[in-house]
Amino acid sequence: MRDKIRRVTERLPLQFRVLYRQFLLRVIDLESLSIEADIPRCLGQFAGVLITISVFQTFVFLVVTGGGSDLRSLLRTGLHTVQSLLAGTMLIAGLTAVATWDNIFPDLRDAMVLGPLPVRPRTMLAAKLASSASLLAIGVLSLNCGMGTILPLLAGGLLRFPLILAAYWFTVSAAAFFVFGAVLTIQGLLAAILPRQWFLQLSSILQLASFALFLSVWLFQPSYGGAAEFASAQQQGILARWPMFWFFGMFCQTTGIFPIALNRLALRAWLGLVAVGSGALASLLLCYLRTMKKTVEEPDLAKGRFHGGWTVPLGDSFQTAVVHFSLRSLARSRQHRVAYAFFLAIAFAIAVSTLTQVANTHRTHSVTTEFLMNTLMMVCLAVAGLRSIFSLPVSLRANWVLQVTQLSPPERYIAATRCAMLLMATIPVWATAAGLSLCYRPWHQVAEHLLVLSFAGSIMTDAALIGVSKISFACSYLPGKSNVQFGFWAFVIVFIPLAMMFSRYEQSVFDHSRSYALLVAILLMAALILWLFNRHQAKSAVLYYEESEPEVITTIGIGSWQPINQRVSAQNR
């Protein structure tokens, strides 16, 4: 199999193969990577998370349906499972499209490096499309690898297995292409119509909005498990509002395993595919025929209109400079905004879901465990998201400025980094939680929870900065060093149950002053200990600007042979 794939790839043009590999590895900007970066390892970790989710979902499906022996359970569970997989596939496609927001379109580096070379624009376009399609295929295959085989086998048996298998994979591929093509169409048309500086400014806003949109749609779209529920929802016009049900109707139309008539929704899916395919093709042709000149002629950065010498003081002058450097790095860098937007979008979706529950009843609610847990998770996501992008620099070429101007002790830099994390993550999310708490009563419980949440935010901030000896946004990034799989499952298996237990205990001590005072004292003591520990470690810390893999010294165990030699010589004597 490998030999066949190798033979096929060797027949492709050399220019295409070289460009395809480079574009595939440019998911993260190469200027931000460490010299020891292992991008395939990082991509493999994300694929591993999706494969684990698929295997777990397949195992639960087999347990619930009894391996396909219970037909009613198979039908009802299969309906929910297909809807869940289609929604997850469209979410992965949307996140992939936003993460690779402008990778398909030519940028200034492509025009300056590849322009003088004898590389045709169509070769560049084909390589960019192939690399983006490969990333999308990795996500779709990883998420559907389990149910994509088990569901067609149980639902159709051996006779209809090939037909249902082909229909399933065609449907999920069409759903992924629809979302990815829609984002591509909107971005390409805006890039062709607007001036480049306007497009770059609007592009950052669209990225953040797209993250929030895809996650909100995934969280709030409904799911139905019976023909009667589908018929009622279709009469009310609910199904036509969600594109996921369009492709679910396509799956029902092509397979016929679910006795539900959704031909109108399937027609919407086919028309949507045609419209998105035509729009994506037109936007790509416009960009490669017209926008290439704009990319070279117009600068990416525009001169600011306002030049003020006054800045908001955030401590002393040194701390203010470091904090403003962090704020401007996050505001100007596309990569940082996209990565941080993923975490903020989840926190925003949690806040919107909490607000929606209150708005539907049109009355104030009592403080519930769900509200306490949601606000705690919002703070955790904001802190974890900002900490994850601190190691991603704006440009390694600018790090020498910070290195030659390092005149202050390292503890001042680390203290300024802590202040930046508080101002950019903990305090804004805490203020959002305070705004949501206005819809809850009684007031004394709301105030008590906000006090507990402030201490919890301080603990999370200091815990995230343990062992950090670098300036934010000024150190190279080593993708393979961060274990994405471990972090994801630690959050799902460890943090969420602990947050649930802590929220239940917090709610139980609201009306007991002694127990609540003990909880506050414990949190205050933990926050103080972590702050003092980081401060003590910062005094002996040495700032570094380059991530590197730890050196592993391998021994051949020569010393272990010495006692054996001595024994042999003693026996010979």
What are the SSEs and their pairings?
Layout (H helix, E strand, L loop, with lengths): L1 H10 L2 H11 L14 H27 L5 H29 L8 H7 L6 H24 L2 H47 L2 H25 L6 H9 L7 H13 L7 H35 L19 H16 L1 H28 L3 E2 L2 H21 L9 H6 L5 H27 L3 E2 L1 H22 L19 H25 L4 H27 L22 H11 L1
Parallel strand pairs: 1-2
Helix pairs in contact: 2-6, 3-6, 3-18, 4-6, 4-7, 4-8, 4-10, 6-7, 7-10, 7-11, 8-13, 10-11, 12-16, 13-14, 13-16, 14-16, 14-17, 14-18, 16-17, 16-19, 17-19
Structure notes:
It contains 20 helices and two strands. By secondary structure, it is mainly alpha-helical. The chain folds into two domains: 2-30 and 40-297, no CATH class; 317-539, no CATH class. It has a two-stranded parallel sheet. Helix 6 runs antiparallel to helix 7 (147-193), helix 10 packs across helix 11 and helix 14 packs parallel to helix 17 (443-464). It starts with a helix and ends with a helix. The model is unreliable at 564-568 (pLDDT under 50).
